[in-house]
Amino acid sequence: MTGFGLAEAPLGNGRVVAEIRTVNQRFLDVRIKLPRELADLTLFSEQIVRERLRRGRVELHLRLEGVAFEAGVLDKDRARAAYRALAELRDELSPGAEVPLSLLTAVPELFSPTHAPQMEVSRESTRLAIDRAIRDMDAMCRREGETIAADMRNRVTAVRESTEQIVERATTAHRALHQRMRERLEKLLEGTDVEFDPLRLEAEVALLAERTDITEEIVRLKSHLEQFEGVLLASANEPCGRKLDFLLQEMLREANTLSAKAQDALISQHAVAMKVELERLREQAQNVE
């Protein structure tokens, strides 16, 4: 299920801003991007996300706004050494040229790292910002889930209607089959000396009706529909995507079987309409956790 969340938490005289987005994916794939000042909290941030989410491709971006950290302490000895090295290089390559102090900004670790107490505050602010962003994203996903559930219920109703139409047609299909075979035999025997045998006709019709009987498929299909509706009603806060996908696979199998067995055009039409709705349901189920 797709979602987006944005939240912040105070840190020093600034704040940590967390932005999280997720797109549907079968497994959980977490990608973290943090500012340099919070780089040590990458694994900590990923752990928070993995504890809260179960699947999807998740992208979490954190950024700092305002003066979140106090200025670090300049390492003067390191700065002097770096400047002397630059001056010596200047004397060798271009004597008399100016060596601007701005070149020192490219020297790594020129300022002492954040001390431990400030890092603990950073951890707490980061955790709070991520938690709030996930809650914001969950609210969006919940609204999307309600829309998907409503669409699924409508499609389940359409599948149930097709099933009832198939059941209704199946009750008259046997008589229609009997009539077609009788008319065909009478036409074939017309003008010949072969006597029409109604008992033989009944035996053949009974044998064909047994091969085309779809009672078992209809019973299983109705059972799967009831289970599917039960999962939709009972799984508001629990993962149910895989269970729904399994039930839809079984319903498609039953629909394919009864479509192949039924020797009736109307039943085939209803079965095709049913399979269209089941395929659409299966596409929606891929978006459900």
TrEMBL record:
User: Pfam families, alphabetically?
Assistant: YicC-like_C, YicC-like_N
- Keyword field contains Iron: no
Q: Which cofactor does it need?
A: a divalent metal cation
In this protein, which residues make up the domain named Endoribonuclease YicC-like C-terminal? 168-289
Q: Keywords, A to Z?
A: Endonuclease, Hydrolase, Nuclease
Q: Which GO terms describe its molecular function?
A: hydrolase activity; RNA endonuclease activity
Question: Which residues belong to any copy of the Endoribonuclease YicC-like N-terminal domain?
Answer: 1-149
Membership in a protein family? Belongs to the YicC/YloC family.
PANTHER family from the UniProt entry: UPF0701 PROTEIN YICC (PTHR30636:SF3)
NCBIfam families xrefs = YicC/YloC family endoribonuclease (TIGR00255)
Official protein name in the record: YicC family protein
